[in-house]
């Protein structure tokens, strides 16, 4: 029987939910009636699948996000729910469904695609590479208790009226972090009340003039020793005093909660502020990226205003039709520009090399060692690295 790759609509809801449960786990059984199949036409979700007759063999969703890269926002296709039916694994149905999904995402204007893989090896052939991560860590509360701000910082509990200021503080943090989602748009629908009322508390750190310098969004555990005692989903600040005040506040729970569980970027500033080595990873997830539109992925990114460069490279081996080819990249006036062009030289990037290079995740030296960059003038490698110098990567929103 022949297989078909297609967009999935509401008619596939029940089969899609069954496939998802098989792979990722069935919800705990209840005595009530079976849950309604999840809807496949939720805003911001685009489901793709492979069918054989009336059987669903594979599925994957493209989720609409926006993400910060190089100081500006790019449309992102976030991959979720990737599943191949147990009996169809190894039959080669994953590649076609991912390709159809990525072509659809490209048509709707996505410039990069990202995901949290269950295993990175699944997605390398499609051109994804790890550029950042989310790390959940346990820190003894006592190690935070002594942290104090050097200057004056006031802590107070957020009210719904503060929600937009909290979002703007997040924006200010995220704007400097390659990979961070904007938390705005169709896929982020949290109301003001949910933002400050969902957690046990959102604590604001304010300057004497009322400016918001940081916040911590925290959830108290059960207090009976089962599960984490104090979970902090966001702890973000724009100044060190706000970090110290918020961490010190969390440490003040030491007599009743011995551990604080922090969600961090893999390379979080909080680590630099701690005086103790105690920092235990409890969950470590990689964030992978693939470029869907080479010109848009480079063009408009900020670079050093002191850098003037005219460079070129070839992309080779991409699964997306038409993406391979020669590209000219220039830097001037603090901005990068990229367009298709005839370029001299044989500097050639693989899709995975491009993902690492465009986000500054790895220098050219590493790309060459990994075989993801070949040819070209090695003396030019430093200029390519300078194009993305100073980038920091991170993401806090799991999907
Ligand atoms: C992961 C899954 C979608 C792969 O489907 P599949 O039909 O077995 O995939 P393929 O045989 O086409 O393999 C694709 C690639 O993934 C690799 N791969 C598959 N499972 C892997 C694993 N668990 N760890 C590392 N690599 C894996 C294969 O080696 C292959 O690599 P290649 O492209 O270099 O040859 C399927 O096993 C599945 O549904 N698993 C359960 C749900 C899941 O983990 N989904 C992924 C969520 S991010």
TrEMBL record:
<dbReference type="GO" id="GO:0030649">
    <property type="term" value="P:aminoglycoside antibiotic catabolic process"/>
</dbReference>
<dbReference type="Pfam" id="PF17668">
    <property type="entry name" value="Acetyltransf_17"/>
</dbReference>
<dbReference type="InterPro" id="IPR041380">
    <property type="entry name" value="Acetyltransf_17"/>
</dbReference>
<keyword id="KW-0808">Transferase</keyword>
<dbReference type="InterPro" id="IPR016181">
    <property type="entry name" value="Acyl_CoA_acyltransferase"/>
</dbReference>
<dbReference type="InterPro" id="IPR000182">
    <property type="entry name" value="GNAT_dom"/>
</dbReference>
<dbReference type="InterPro" id="IPR051554">
    <property type="entry name" value="Acetyltransferase_Eis"/>
</dbReference>
<dbReference type="GO" id="GO:0034069">
    <property type="term" value="F:aminoglycoside N-acetyltransferase activity"/>
</dbReference>
<feature type="region of interest" description="Disordered">
    <location>
        <begin position="19"/>
        <end position="38"/>
    </location>
</feature>
<dbReference type="InterPro" id="IPR036527">
    <property type="entry name" value="SCP2_sterol-bd_dom_sf"/>
</dbReference>
<feature type="domain" description="N-acetyltransferase">
    <location>
        <begin position="3"/>
        <end position="160"/>
    </location>
</feature>
<dbReference type="Pfam" id="PF13527">
    <property type="entry name" value="Acetyltransf_9"/>
</dbReference>
<protein>
    <submittedName>
        <fullName>Predicted acetyltransferase</fullName>
    </submittedName>
</protein>
